[in-house]
Specification:
Layout: H1 3-8, E1 17-22, E2 27-34, E3 38-46, H2 48-51, H3 59-81, E4 90-96, H4 100-117, E5 121-125, H5 126-132, E6 144-149, E7 154-161, E8 164-170, H6 176-186, H7 193-201, H8 224-241, H9 246-275, E9 279-283, H10 290-303, E10 306-309, H11 319-331
Parallel strand pairs: 1-4, 4-5, 6-9, 9-10
Antiparallel strand pairs: 1-2, 2-3, 6-7, 7-8
Helix pairs in contact: 3-4, 5-11, 6-7, 6-8, 6-9, 7-9, 9-10
Bound molecules: 5'-O-[(R)-(carboxyoxy)(hydroxy)phosphoryl]adenosine (KG4) and zinc ion.
């Protein structure tokens, strides 16, 4: 089936079924979406547990886990959705950025299905799929300013039209999620750091320690300084008190989260004002953080912005966001064919 057949056929958008496949990091995920954002299934198999002993994702282990689970994950996604392959209008697959071995598993699998089933295939940029996940339960209304905040990215975009994302600012070093993971490692809390730090921060004092991650008055981010500040504070406390108490750990978590969340919210609002956009959209793994969600909501209310945050179920890597963005791009005729494989930019 060609692009024009998809566009010109008598099928209504609501009758189209898109299979989305995501394997950019440690989650093997597949989803069937009807229309633009009616998620019929979203199966996620994570190799997270295998990486915990190393305190981070080991690419080789992640790739092998994808190979083991991709068949059953895709099969389940179709079964749960109650959709057979002949009903599919499109396959959308993450083409990057991500771990090259992991990406190759998803792309090769999707390409085989596309050839075997004679269904068009498009490649989807991973960062953009996180961004548009904010509209999984809503229609996209451009223009908007979007923040993608995940383990690999912290970027602000000015989106004037669907598929036309202008980078306004990004991290100069670590991504926000990476900083959560590294701080958790420093404190000996395990991996991934985001959910653990969020939990401990609930009982800590957010102003116990004066951490900050300001990166000037622009729209870029920097999180490596605050990570180092946490490291030195932890070493200092251990030296002074011989050990670090649970209360101190909770205070560090709360103070670190407070600083990172404030920085993200401040720059989101700054970007929206600069772009004169009335809408802010936020997606990515860190967007599941409750404190970030609450503060974004208050800031949006105070400044008169409409806010769309990805539903919690679609903040971490998932196939639904890939299928949904695939459907939107394909319908609009601005899909990118899967021509090249670039793990850095997708
Ligand atoms: O989007 P994602 O699944 O993968 C990337 O594309 O990078 O995001 C994973 C990141 C990890 O760094 C993890 O620590 C962070 O999201 N994360 C959180 C929370 N849940 C996951 N960060 C802060 N608070 C959370 N609740
Ligand atoms: Zn991601």
């Amino acid at each position: 089936m060609s692009l024009s057949m998809f566009q010109n056929s008598s099928l209504q958008v609501s009758d189209t079924y898109v299979l989305g496949i995501e394997t950019s990091c440690d989650e093997t995920s597949a989803s069937v979406v009807r229309g633009r954002n009616d998620v019929l299934s979203n199966i996620v198999s994570s190799s997270l547990k295998l990486h915990v002993p190393y305190g981070g994702v080991i690419p080789e282990i992640a790739s092998r886990a994808h190979v083991e689970s991709i068949c059953s994950v895709v099969d389940n996604a179709l079964k749960v959705a109650g959709v057979s392959s002949d009903k599919l209008s499109l396959i959308a697959v993450t083409q990057g950025p991500g771990l090259i071995g992991s990406l190759l598993v998803g792309i090769s699998f999707a390409r085989s299905l596309s050839l075997g089933w004679k269904i068009p295939l498009i490649g989807i940029n991973h960062v953009r799929s996180h961004l548009y996940a904010a509209f999984l339960e809503n229609e996209v209304s451009c223009p908007f300013v979007g923040l993608v905040v995940s383990g690999g990215h912290t970027s602000l975009y000015n989106v004037k039209n669907l598929g036309k994302e202008e980078l306004m600012g990004s991290t100069r070093d670590d991504a926000a999620g990476e900083a959560f993971d590294k701080v958790a490692k420093i404190l000996g809390l395990g991996y991934p750091g985001g959910p653990i730090i969020e939990k401990l921060a609930k009982t800590g004092k957010p102003r116990a320690y004066a951490f900050n991650c300001d990166c000037g008055s622009g729209l870029d981010f920097s999180f490596s300084g605050i990570k180092t500040a946490v490291l030195y504070k932890t070493k200092y406390l251990k030296k002074i008190y011989n050990d670090i108490s649970q209360e101190m750990i909770c205070d560090i978590c709360a103070s670190f989260q407070y600083a990172v969340v404030n920085d993200l919210v401040t720059k989101c609002v700054r970007a929206a004002k600069k772009a004169k956009a009335g809408i802010i959209a936020v997606g990515g793994g860190v967007a599941s953080n409750g404190s970030l969600r609450d503060k974004l909501e208050s800031a949006a209310r105070e400044n008169g912005f409409r806010l769309f945050i990805a539903p919690k179920a679609y903040c971490l890597d998932n196939g639904a966001m890939v299928a949904s963005l695939g459907a939107r791009l394909f319908e609009a005729g601005i899909s990118k064919k899967l021509l090249k494989l670039d793990p850095m930019s997708g």
